């Protein structure tokens, strides 16, 4: 049995979700007989990790710091083994723009997009190019911050007049944003555990046009169908794409890959890869694991086993 | 050593199983994204102008100890025992005294129901009056804390616009006419006439008189929520709706939360007798009686302490903080924004250009370690997206200045970015503080950017 530090909370906007994920992981670790130290990540993180001297850290930290490689880098420095993806895979996955470029370069399908930093608008007059972008992507188009999870800051612009305020909103979360072609598709989440796809979860919003932050975290607001009701070949293709995306970005341990299945053509498009997906009671990865007959405890045990040990220390 | 087995958290499957048992009313009992965002505002490095808290650090600990020892000496058994549902007689006398201090005299203690905070009054009024689908009329924006109660009883809330003089009674009458044509009779009209939460505006005397007339003409009940009436920093006190109406159609809500302590959870209602009797029955079901301990505390405090002095000290502190916030807003917020000028209470309401969404802005503000309440929570219909509520009572003078400066910085940044994106630069921010009172339509949404005219709307 190991001494496990569960890293959770932190400064990101997904703090609340991460606290729930972390608490659930702690329960599972305890019932597996591990010695658990819960750490709400803050200024004293390094001191607390040194004091706790864990055998391994379970990263249950979402969003900034947890999914962008920051905490992983610190753990490398401190020589503490940790769960999930390594630093570079987190950096590639945590940034939707880097991930989408990787997909496109690697020949994996992802909706067309353009990405800009705030300085492109303030210093380079990128606003002049908005018309050309809108023409290429057509309306409605989607505006997203590059690095923000949980659908926070995602806006749908129906016409040119709605684009500037959508950009202002997205820039509230990150200084880099992307404008993406809208795909009228079904929301699919393929969880990957040790390079193998779990059953697909489809998120069907009950009363909203788009799947937003509210719907994602409220019981009863969204219906989750698992396994998703898809033709066998679509299921196989979605799982294949998810594993390809996971491998392409260099993920390890586990991750959740989000895709859209075009309602008309049935084409699949990759949206993003979450290196530390939600592990709450309403999260999709635990639901998928459950459908595969893997209990949450078994999932947590597996993730611990998969973490490379010794190498860093 | 192995730990004892602990019941693990439920799986998603199990949650769905529970969801099948939930009552229909829970479908509208929403927790919000905002709540999760607010998780980060609790961190100590954040300056939070998002709270609604009175500053209880101003209460002298030695007074607290003295009062508790009096309770111990004189009323231990009583404090630890159940009490009557309607409340202890002695505390009702304190309530009569508080109401008289605001000019509402002649209250009969038999017309009072002591409650667990003012919040319980809102719940009990809904419990007593509202069937699913019934119309309740509220202000726009309304107290965000009333929304969960209104939702839980499945009220259909119709919100009436406000301006610097409070709820627009002309619009209220038009709405009532329309509802009548549709065959729908509102169960009650919910208003906070003094220093409204969240808008910070006060209903004028003519409107108060007219509201009471309208209620009587149409035989509609009004819930007058008055937590802040005694926290007045300027201007003359206005009569309560209850005193204007004489207790015919007005249900009065009062509380000790803002004049003494929110932690005591002690509020009250004064209502027409038949309504009060039903509310009493509703309260029996909810909690049998309000905490005897806090009722004994308040009684002892009124007998041995000087509640008016403490209130006076609060008024002094909050007035100063309000002034600091108004000055800071004038200095740091761009011209395109507007805000209310509260004569009392704990909050003011700022409205930004309509292309700024304050929920998203909060994410940016949190990076600057400052928080506010996005306006959307004060509407039930998705409006309020460009507004925010700012609290000035629960934070220090320096934190108010610094917090407003940081919010102003991110707002200006967004105004400038929008200007860049739309190809025109917004007017440059004011070089020096402008003593700009709000225009009369400051609360109406959507609204156009404020004209540079700074003489309008002063009261």
How would you explain this protein's 3D organization?
The complex is a heterodimer of chains A (313) and B (459). Chain A has helices spanning 15-31, 45-52, 70-78, 87-94, 96-105, 118-124, 130-137, 163-170, 213-217, 232-249, 284-291, 296-306; strands spanning 3-8, 35-40, 56-59, 113-117, 141-145, 155-157, 176-181, 185-193, 196-197, 201-205, 222-225, 254-262, 268-274. Chain A has 313 residues and is of the alpha+beta class. Chain A has 3 domains: 3-84, Rossmann fold, CATH 3.40.50; 92-109 and 183-301, D-amino Acid Aminotransferase, Chain A, domain 1; 113-181, ATP-grasp fold, A domain (Dna Ligase, domain 1). In chain A, strands 8, 9, 10, 11, 12 and 13 form a 6-stranded antiparallel β-sheet that branches. In chain A, strands 4-7-5-6 form a 4-stranded antiparallel β-sheet. In chain A, a hairpin with a 5-residue loop joins β12 and β13. Chain B folds into 2 domains: 29-57 and 310-421, Aspartate Aminotransferase, domain 1; 61-304, Aspartate Aminotransferase, domain 2 (3-Layer(aba) Sandwich), CATH 3.40.640. Helix content of chain B is 41%, strand content 13%. In chain B, the strands form 3 sheets. Chain B has an 8-stranded mixed β-sheet with strand order 2-9-8-7-6-3-4-5, sandwiched between helices. In chain B, α8 (205-218) links the parallel β6 and β7. Chain B is globular, with a radius of gyration of 23 Å. Residues 425-442 and 444-459 of chain B have low confidence and may be disordered. Chains A and B meet through α1, α6, α8, α9 and α11 of A and α1, α2, α13 and α14 of B.
Key descriptive features of the protein:
heterodimer, A: alpha+beta, Rossmann fold, D-amino Acid Aminotransferase, Chain A, domain 1, Dna Ligase, domain 1, 3 domains, 4-stranded antiparallel β-sheet, B: 459 residues, Aspartate Aminotransferase, domain 1, Aspartate Aminotransferase, domain 2, 2 domains, 14 helices
């Amino acid at each position: 049995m190991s001494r496990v530090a569960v890293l959770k909370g932190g400064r990101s906007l997904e703090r609340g979700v991460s606290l729930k994920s972390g608490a659930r992981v702690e329960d599972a670790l305890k019932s597996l007989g591990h010695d658990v130290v819960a750490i709400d990540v803050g200024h004293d993180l390094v001191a607390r990790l040194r004091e706790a001297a864990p055998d391994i850290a379970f990263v249950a930290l979402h969003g900034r710091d947890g999914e962008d490689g920051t905490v992983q880098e610190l753990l490398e420095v401190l020589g503490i083994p940790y769960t999930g993806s390594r630093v570079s895979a987190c950096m590639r996955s945590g940034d939707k723009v880097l991930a989408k470029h990787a997909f496109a370069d690697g020949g994996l399908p992802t909706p067309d997009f353009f990405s800009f930093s705030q300085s492109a608008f303030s210093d380079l007059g990128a606003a002049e190019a908005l018309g050309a972008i809108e023409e290429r992507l057509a309306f409605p188009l989607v505006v997203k911050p590059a690095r923000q999870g949980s659908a926070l800051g995602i806006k749908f612009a129906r016409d040119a007049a709605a684009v500037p305020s959508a950009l202002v909103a997205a820039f509230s979360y990150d200084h880099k944003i992307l404008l993406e072609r809208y795909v009228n598709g079904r929301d699919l989440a393929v969880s990957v555990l040790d390079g193998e796809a779990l059953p697909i979860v489809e998120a069907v919003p009950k009363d909203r046009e788009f799947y937003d932050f509210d719907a994602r975290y409220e019981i009863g607001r969204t219906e989750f169908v698992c396994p998703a009701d898809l033709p066998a070949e679509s299921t196989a293709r979605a799982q294949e794409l998810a594993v390809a995306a996971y491998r392409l970005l260099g993920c390890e341990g586990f991750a959740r890959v989000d895709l859209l299945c075009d309602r008309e053509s049935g084409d699949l498009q990759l949206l993003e890869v979450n290196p530390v997906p939600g592990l709450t009671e309403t999260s999709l990865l635990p639901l998928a694991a459950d459908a595969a007959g893997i209990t949450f405890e078994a999932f947590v045990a597996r993730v611990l086993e998969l973490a490379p040990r010794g190498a860093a220390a | 050593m192995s730990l004892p087995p602990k019941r693990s958290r439920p799986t998603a499957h199990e949650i769905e199983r529970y969801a099948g048992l939930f009552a229909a009313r829970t479908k509208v009992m929403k927790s919000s994204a905002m709540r999760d965002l607010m998780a980060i505002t609790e961190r100590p490095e954040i300056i939070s102008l998002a709270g609604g808290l009175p500053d209880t650090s101003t209460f002298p600990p030695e007074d607290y100890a003295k009062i508790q020892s009096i309770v111990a000496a004189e009323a231990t058994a009583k404090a630890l025992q159940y009490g009557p549902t309607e409340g202890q007689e002695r505390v009702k006398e304190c309530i009569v005294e508080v109401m008289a201090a605001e000019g509402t005299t002649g209250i009969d203690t038999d017309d009072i129901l002591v409650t667990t905070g003012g919040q319980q009054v809102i719940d009990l009024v809904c419990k007593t009056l509202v069937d699913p689908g019934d119309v309740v009329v509220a202000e726009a924006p309304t107290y965000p804390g009333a929304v969960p109660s209104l939702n839980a009883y499945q009220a259909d809330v119709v919100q009436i616009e406000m301006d610097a003089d409070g709820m627009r009674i002309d619009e209220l009458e038009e709405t009532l006419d329309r509802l009548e044509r549709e065959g729908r009779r509102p169960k009650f009209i919910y208003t906070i006439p003094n220093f409204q939460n969240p808008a910070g505006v006060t209903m004028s005397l003519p409107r108060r008189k007219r509201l009471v007339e309208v209620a009587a003409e149409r035989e509609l009940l009004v819930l007058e929520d008055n937590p802040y009436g005694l926290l007045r920093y300027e201007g003359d006190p206005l009569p309560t709706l209850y005193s204007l109406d004489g207790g015919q159609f007005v249900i009065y809500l009062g509380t000790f939360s803002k004049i003494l302590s929110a932690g005591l959870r002690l509020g009250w209602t004064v209502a027409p007798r038949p309504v009060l009797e039903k509310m009493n029955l509703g309260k029996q079901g909810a909690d049998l009686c309000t905490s005897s301990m806090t009722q004994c505390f308040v009684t002892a405090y009124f007998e041995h302490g000087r509640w008016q002095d403490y209130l006076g000290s609060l008024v002094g502190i909050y007035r100063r903080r309000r002034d600091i916030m108004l000055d800071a807003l004038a200095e740091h917020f761009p011209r395109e924004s507007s805000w209310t000028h509260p004569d009392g209470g704990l909050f003011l309401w700022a409205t930004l250009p309509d292309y700024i969404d304050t929920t998203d802005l909060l994410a940016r503000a949190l990076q600057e370690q400052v928080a506010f309440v996005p306006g959307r929570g004060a509407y039930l219909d998705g409006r309020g997206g460009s507004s925010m509520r700012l609290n000035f009572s629960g934070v220090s003078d320096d934190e108010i200045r610094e917090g407003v400066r940081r919010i102003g910085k991110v707002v200006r940044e967004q105004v400038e970015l929008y200007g860049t994106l739309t190809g025109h630069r917004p007017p440059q921010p004011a070089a020096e503080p402008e003593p700009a009172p709000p225009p009369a339509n400051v609360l109406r949404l959507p609204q156009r950017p404020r004209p540079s005219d700074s003489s309008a709307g002063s009261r």
